Amino acid sequence: MAAENRASAVAQPVVLVLASGRGERFAASGGAVHKLSALLNGKPVLEHTLAAVHASGLRWHLEDAGHPGMGDSIAAAVRATADAPGWLVLPGDLPLVQPETLRSIAAALADCAVAVPVHHGERGHPVGFAAQCLQALRALTGEQGAASVVRQQAQQGRVRWVDVEDEGTVTDVDTVQDLERAERLLAERR
């Protein structure tokens, strides 16, 4: 049984936590610190995101070098974890994402190339990518992230849209107003 547990752990994708952005919209909205350092219920936004990742039990990689765009960040993180059987791309500014959602998206990759969480019709994160997306992810550059990879796989019928009840998949912190909304949502969970 122990060998089976080890084998299944090896087959799990790696969560790529992206924390390289400049946070310009947050500053422009009146934020005094970088959005990932802004306090949410007494802890930095990024700490909330990382707590969910830890609680998921999945392997993870924090990409926090100063890359020019999300595509560059994803490519660097994938290169750093190229031996992984897949990846969950999770921006660091989604502090309310639930560990169960991370596990659900990871599990969905068993039968598709890309798994995208959908909350009440809105696409969210983390987006899961199977190993067959390695080369396309490694080649990403610029601000657009991996939308081109999702489109390419969707054209081939290899995307699974996963309905989730996790509002944290679509609750990012880009502005001070977003932070205030996240604070309210977090208070409602208690």
Helices, strands, pairings?
Blueprint: H1 2-10, E1 14-18, H2 24-28, E2 39-40, E3 43-44, H3 45-56, E4 60-63, H4 70-80, E5 86-91, H5 99-108, E6 114-119, E7 122-123, E8 127-130, H6 134-138, H7 147-155, E9 159-163, H8 176-189
Parallel strand pairs: 1-4, 1-5, 6-9
Antiparallel strand pairs: 2-3, 5-8, 6-7, 6-8
Helix pairs in contact: 3-5
Report on the architecture of this protein:
The chain is α/β, with parallel strands linked by helices and 190 residues long. Helix content is 39%, strand content 19%. Strands 1, 4, 5, 6, 7, 8 and 9 form a seven-stranded mixed beta sheet that branches. A hairpin with a 2-residue loop joins strand 2 (39-40) and strand 3. Helix 3 crosses helix 5. The radius of gyration is 16 Å and the shape is globular. The protein starts with a helix and ends with a helix. 42% of the residues are buried.
Count of beta strands: 9
> What is the straight-line distance between the termini?
37 Å
Specify Rg, calculated over alpha carbons.
Answer: 16 Å
Helix-strand makeup class = alpha/beta
Number of helices: 8
Low-confidence stretches: 1-10
Give the overall average pLDDT: 92
Roughly what fraction of the amino acids lie in strands?
A: 15-25%
What is the approximate shape?
A: globular
Order of helices and strands: HEHEEHEHEHEEEHHEH
Bin the helical content.
Answer: 25-40%
**Main sheet makeup:** 7 strands, mixed
Key structural traits:
190 residues, alpha/beta, seven-stranded mixed sheet
Short recap of the structure:
By secondary structure, the chain is α/β, with parallel strands linked by helices. It is about 40% helix and about 20% strand.
